[in-house]
């Protein structure tokens, strides 16, 4: 715990000093007319529900009052980012009902990976909408929306993105966790580590593709501490020596850290390769690990506790599901005090936890360069 305190202080001091060194006071706020997001369930605002099957109750109960395609009780980090920028929540690209793309679109789909996997949604929850497919969808979206915008009457354009906003938009990447999960599932350390350069390379190619089509501002999240997810801690026979000081699985977190190390190095190289781009690397891992390490001090219960689901005496019933146990039907509903929990369903975070993380990453405290998101279009 003491190490986490020291780490937090260092991060805060580094942020303040670095922000001052780049002259933040002299930078104008970026005018992001739109946000385009690529990712997995951590930022899926309804694409998975539109493509496969809808997220049911009790998802969405905190903020929206009903299921809205998010694997959460309320808002995700991407929702808080949109609000922070003064923009509406992003409509999923695949959702055809009641959508507006004037201020951007969300291509994230739950279960998506950077690297296409030879697996399926029905087998193990892996989405066919890998990052390369999401980029193809964006390219088509940009071309088709521009076609219809230029051929529509002004009164009919209100749900279409303005062509000039594409170059001024913020492009967010929040993907990679499922690539790591796939590596852990296959239980082959050497194969996973050999695959990381290709995984990172494919994300870099996605960034370059967008750059070549006019994108200039990128906000790239690394992946969180997968070894701290309660789903990992509840479903394994764990020995004490396998855990770190925060009660997380060291071996699983090592996968995340290796991916993050190579991702950061590639972002730095991309800055040289794409001279007109402003690329921000966001340390989601550090932000989430700090929250987990300081859970009680931040007003949360133990980080390993799961709000939605039934997990007792080796009986596991997932969030929103029902199961007959010894003649008794068990419904895996949500907890009473949702805002006290970090984990929503063992894999995804609650709205309260997402708000905590979003507040800290949008101010630049966990970014390289350490600029607030409203200044991310600038190159220090």
Automatic annotation (TrEMBL):
The keyword NADP does not apply. Gene3D superfamilies: SGNH hydrolase. SUPFAM superfamilies: SGNH hydrolase. It comes from the Eukaryota. The keyword Hydrolase applies. GO terms for molecular function: hydrolase activity, acting on ester bonds. Residues 1-21 form the signal peptide. Keywords: Glycoprotein, Hydrolase, Signal. Belongs to the 'GDSL' lipolytic enzyme family. This is GDSL esterase/lipase At5g14450-like.
